[in-house]
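Holo prediction. Input below; ligand is S-adenosyl-L-homocysteine.
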Amino acid sequence: MTNKEKSFIGLDKIETLSLLKRIGAETFRYEQIQNWIFDNFCENWEEMKNIPKDLRDKLSEKMQLHPLQINHVSGSENEPTKKFLFKTISGHSLESVLMYEKNRTTVCISSQIGCAVDCKFCATASMGFIKNLNDYEIIDQVLHLERLSKHKITNIVFMGMGEPFLNYKNVIKAAKFLNHKMGFGARRITISTAGIVPKIRKIADEEHQFKLAISLNAVTEIERKKIMSVTNTYSLNELIDSARYYYQKTRRLITFEYVLLKGINDSPSDGKKLISLLMGLECKVNIIPYNEIGGDFNRPDEITIKNFLKELRKAPFNVTVRWSKGTDINAGCGQLAVEAIS
Ligand code: SAH
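Structure of the complex:
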């Protein structure tokens, strides 16, 4: 790999110090540069005003600062949701979303380019699987968005492109970095999975404080297999068992996400089954009315959603509804998909 294919962000401390030595920079420059990147979220070498110009020139000759470059931003200045299209050094595209809510600012980040899980209702699935993102390509989404956000980022959700638990090592490495090095509380970092059971058990066994969300989306094995083929590998029973295990081990509430699909999983009787499926499990359920991606599915009408929720309110767990933001710019849940190389 030549330096031009690498970025400065992503080098470890030893590599960084050796690079600085090679270009004749003193060691204390390391801290200064770290400070520019992780405290000031600077975009390029030129902004690092206390670094002498000849040093900045040498550094920029050697390699680019960020592993991701912003290619496009959708959503205007005053809108509550913005979508960002990034390009990696290898020329692949990925998307992240920034959402301003009443008292929180959330970023929704991608863990992979494309996705192998093939959920029938999700736009990312149509790309197929292209590649895992490195830990620093995951972190860099947050660095860019922190710089561009009007407000300080309060919450990070791994709900963008990809299946985080099929890129477990890099996702955990990135989440730990965001927590330890960048100061985001672990409980403000949520990792969402389509149901990769061994990794749910693994994260339960490890001592992380991150929050877990599971995309459930159906209440029977047969129905779930139709829309989420991951159920062929890990059955609904195994999934619920792993969720119980997670709770026993960590005592942390799981959020179950449930995309409401017209005529598929939206009847009051589905609501009833959902309650019994989750009986005895400490959890929260987040209902996401389906966002259009131009496929076979539709969003239920308001009355159907209301009736489903009415049934669900009888549950012992909390129920919230996520009226996805940014559907007009295809930045809602499940709407992220880009050309592989553009
Ligand atoms: N692969 C992970 C994270 C990405 S999907 C996972 O499955 O959890 C993030 C959330 O968006 C999931 O809960 C998923 O069920 C939901 N989702 C996917 N497509 C959607 C669509 N078209 N409309 C609404 N929600 C969708």
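The domain at 3-62 is CATH 1.10.150.530 (DNA polymerase; domain 1). That is the main takeaway for now.
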